[in-house]
């Protein structure tokens, strides 16, 4: 590649950061690259934190997103264990006072785990490798776990804990788990999966606060007056971008870093953003949206690297998310949050039958906007083309029937 920036600076050494670096090199970029990361660890993968690592099946080394030698081959200068504390035109200031200048800057800071007001220090959240290792140590000694919030991470931790022989109680304020992400009907299916997996799931009841436990461990009180005690507690109520360091950059950071459809940060020249913290514009899907998905982060890194290097944009993709829990893979493609209706496509789960093998289509009006599957991997990938083609309900049903024939 000729032309283009002389130095690309990437802030955030997680998935989005390292994928951006890799994609820059893949696109032929030969200039300088620097990667700044607040954590001391080289880039690692987060999905196994609540699954294989927590279960004790994998050790931390296996989570590395790049082997040491491969990292060296990328020719990237790493600044690990150092937080970026300010962004100014063409430069980033680090926590140790150093100022790095660059002609292209990519922001990939991810999100931090949300905590509850008054959450005691010893009550866990799960976002980082260090969080997961601490939680694993405690779970190994525990016989009971309380999970607050029935989101994907809470459900995965509950599933892993059950696998370790720990009794799990889960409290969720909404009437069903994942109601915002999956909607009420599919959320009810997720509730069945969690309960059939052996969890004491209590929905529709809010936590009023942490109280003094009768022994060691943690105690909470619920709005219905009940009280739960457990050896260990995890709060899994989602993530939020931690963008205080961008406060003086002149951006509206209400819900993440505002970007155009190629990841350029609005109003800032030469700055891009990818990953969980980045709110990209999706004009055909109703505007700005912040995905917190592994695959979307990797896809965005490719788009940004190609934009920086002036190489051809990759083909369009469909958002994809997976979660492994209670022996099933839940898979989601498309944008269920845009839907106003559901159509059963495979399996019996939505009418009270087995959860496994159930596939639901999400409709906005007559148009298919997403598909969710529970233990139905052989079907899910095949709906990608249908979503890209903006298929309607009749086409979705016909396609489902053709897959069964
Ligand atoms: C436990 C867990 C399980 C998951 N499971 C799944 C799954 O099954 N399927 C799925 O699709 N997705 C899953 N995800 C989500 C997926 O891991 C994320 O979408 C992905 O990691 C996002 O990448 P990112 O680069 O935006 O953020 P991250 O991977 O979080 O990396 C951001 C990095 O930037 C650093 N940083 C933040 N601020 C600064 C700063 N100011 N200066 C320097 N560095 C900074 C952070 O410390 C962090 O290391 C899971 C996430 C977690 C936590």
Describe this structure in words.
By secondary structure, this protein is an alpha/beta fold. It folds into three domains: 7-111 and 241-309, FAD/NAD(P)-binding domain (3-Layer(bba) Sandwich); 114-238, 3-Layer(bba) Sandwich (FAD/NAD(P)-binding domain), CATH 3.50.50; 327-404, FAD/NAD-linked reductase, C-terminal dimerisation domain (Enolase-like, domain 1, 2-Layer Sandwich). It is 25% helix and 29% strand. It is built from eleven helices and 25 strands. The strands form seven sheets. The protein has a five-stranded parallel sheet. Helix 1 packs parallel to helix 8 (294-309). The radius of gyration is 22 Å and the shape is globular. It binds flavin-adenine dinucleotide. Flavin-adenine dinucleotide binds next to helix 1, strand 2, helix 8 and strand 21.
Reconstruct the topology from this structure.
Layout: E1 7-11, H1 15-26, E2 32-37, H2 52-55, H3 68-73, E3 76-80, E4 84-88, E5 91-94, E6 99-101, E7 104-107, E8 112-113, H4 129-141, E9 144-148, H5 152-163, E10 167-172, H6 179-182, H7 184-196, E11 200-203, E12 207-211, E13 218-222, E14 227-230, E15 232-235, E16 239-240, E17 257-258, E18 271-273, E19 278-282, E20 287-289, H8 294-309, E21 320-325, E22 328-334, E23 341-346, E24 358-364, E25 367-374, H9 377-380, H10 384-388, H11 393-404
Parallel strand pairs: 1-2, 1-7, 2-3, 7-18, 9-10, 9-15, 10-11, 17-19
Antiparallel strand pairs: 4-5, 5-6, 8-16, 12-13, 13-14, 19-20, 21-22, 22-25, 23-24, 24-25
Helix pairs in contact: 1-8
């Amino acid at each position: 590649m000729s032309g283009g920036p002389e130095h690309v600076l990437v802030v955030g050494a997680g998935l989005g950061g390292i994928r951006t670096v890799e994609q820059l090199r893949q696109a032929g970029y030969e200039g300088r690259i620097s990667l700044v990361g607040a954590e001391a660890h080289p880039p690692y993968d987060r999905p196994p934190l609540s699954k294989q690592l927590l279960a004790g099946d994998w050790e931390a080394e296996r989570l590395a997103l790049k082997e040491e030698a491969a990292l060296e081959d990328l020719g990237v200068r790493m600044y690990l264990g150092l937080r970026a504390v300010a962004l100014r035109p063409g430069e980033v200031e680090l926590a140790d006072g150093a100022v790095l200048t660059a002609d292209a800057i990519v922001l990939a800071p991810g999100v931090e785990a949300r905590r509850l007001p008054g959450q005691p220090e010893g009550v866990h959240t799960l976002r980082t490798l260090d969080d997961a290792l601490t939680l694993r140590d405690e779970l190994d000694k525990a016989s009971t776990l309380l999970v607050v919030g029935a989101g994907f991470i809470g459900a995965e931790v509950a599933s892993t804990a059950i696998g370790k022989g720990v009794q799990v109680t889960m409290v969720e304020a909404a009437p069903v788990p994942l109601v915002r992400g999956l909607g009420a009907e599919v959320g009810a299916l997720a509730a069945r999966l969690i309960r059939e997996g052996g969890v004491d799931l209590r929905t529709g009841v809010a936590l009023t606060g942490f109280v003094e436990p009768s022994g060691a461990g943690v105690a909470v009180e619920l709005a219905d007056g009940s009280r739960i005690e457990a050896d260990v507690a995890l709060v899994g109520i989602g993530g939020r971008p931690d963008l205080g360091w961008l406060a003086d950059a002149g951006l509206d950071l209400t819900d993440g870093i505002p970007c155009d459809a190629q990841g350029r940060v609005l109003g800032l020249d030469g700055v891009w953003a990818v990953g969980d913290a980045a709110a990209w514009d999706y004009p055909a899907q109703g505007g700005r949206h912040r995905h917190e998905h592994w695959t979307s982060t990797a896809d965005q890194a490719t788009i940004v690297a190609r934009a920086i290097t002036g190489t051809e944009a990759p083909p369009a993709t469909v958002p994809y998310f997976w979660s492994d829990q209670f022996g099933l893979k839940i898979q989601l493609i498309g944008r269920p949050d845009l839907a106003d209706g559901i159509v059963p496509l495979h399996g019996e789960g939505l009418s009270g039958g087995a959860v496994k093998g159930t596939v639901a289509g999400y409709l906005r009006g007559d148009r298919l906007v997403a598909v969710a599957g529970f233990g139905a991997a052989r079907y899910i990938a095949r709906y990608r083309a249908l979503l890209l083609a903006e298929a309607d309900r009749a086409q979705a049903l016909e396609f489902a029937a053709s897959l069964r024939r």
